[in-house]
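Q: Convert this sequence to structure tokens.
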Amino acid sequence: MRFRDAEAQLNARQPEHMPEPSLDRMRALARYLDDPQLTYPTVHVTGTNGKSTTARAVARLACAHEVITGLYLSPHLVTVRERLSVCGEIISQQEFADEWERLAPYFDLVDAGSEVAVTYFEALTALAFLSFADRPVGLGVFEVGMGGTWDATNLVASDVAVICPVGLDHVAELGPTISDIAREKAGIIKAKRPVVVREQDGEVMAVLQARTSEVDADLKVEFRDWEVDDRLQAVGGQSFSVRGLYTTYDDLFIPLFGEYAARNAAAGLVAVEALFDKALEPDLVREAFLGLRSPGRLEIIDRDPLLVLDGAHNPAGAEALSVALREAFIWERLHLVLSTSANKDVDGIVLPLAPLADVVYLTKNNSVRSAEPLILAERFADSGADVKIEPSVASSIESARSAAAPGDLILVTGSLYTVADAYRALGRPLGDN
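A:
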């Protein structure tokens, strides 16, 4: 089988409508495959924002300590293969196709016994389960797709669970209240296992504490059990120290911007400490963090003028982005390229970004859920910014580059779909093997 054929079959499983929450199809697949996801330890990461950076940090730290580690992320920017990697190497086209060919008969079996066919995300998650077992890996790091309790990834053992900041997002599927969303996220916490928790809203923390008490999990809370300290802005990133569970790690540097990035990286460090049940090697931690990347998260793509991509797609993400921008960068004028999804809190996304923008380029991205630019324009009516409507993300970037002076900043944001369009427009593939 060729990769393009496997990818076409996967894409055909995109649902027109999200099915009712259920793990029945995933359990059936796992049973047919003899539960490959239970053949290696796992770190399971959920939350509203920060999941990918945290999961990447866990994987890099484990690999630095000579543990062969599989990393499963979502979504992807350029190719679906980005979602599966082992110690930094994404799955090849041929490996993907071979694993898909092995799985296809089992998908047909489950489809035949269910009113709802195996979905895109379920199929991809099953492929990750099996691929990591076939490698084999010594650790699997799984980022939740959405929620937790009913997420397809929630068949892993979750030897360590990580809960990144929880906010109001996906309210139609998980809400409507933040406590409802927190209960869904808390579903990845397993009995008598460690759970590393970033700082949370009071309602969220109450839900997480109730879940940990219910299953007798071992709660490790930011600022009580671990924290970032001595954080300083540095050229190309930031330096900091981490008070971990077993020791303090000094002189750390990550080539990422924003306080949240340092705290997410620290959560990953603490998760690996909890997994190993001991302190990590400080020199290996430093080495791992030096190479930590998080594509599409406050990522510098070009300079003169500065071009930055960020996938902020909810109010908390947009607020964190506005704070990090002002901390990390200086600019003369800010050119904001914005495209969001219509089912998001558009007002909440625009509110923290509008005061920063001098020129705004509103457009649609390639998602079918992309919001209409004219509707977005209404949110900028009182901002004082020069608002322009563009036909695409690519044309928006081209217009911004033409208008920007060397001391200006171009920010492309609003959705990871927007960032993905920017990657394609700028010719920045993440791998083609």
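The chain has a mean pLDDT of 95.
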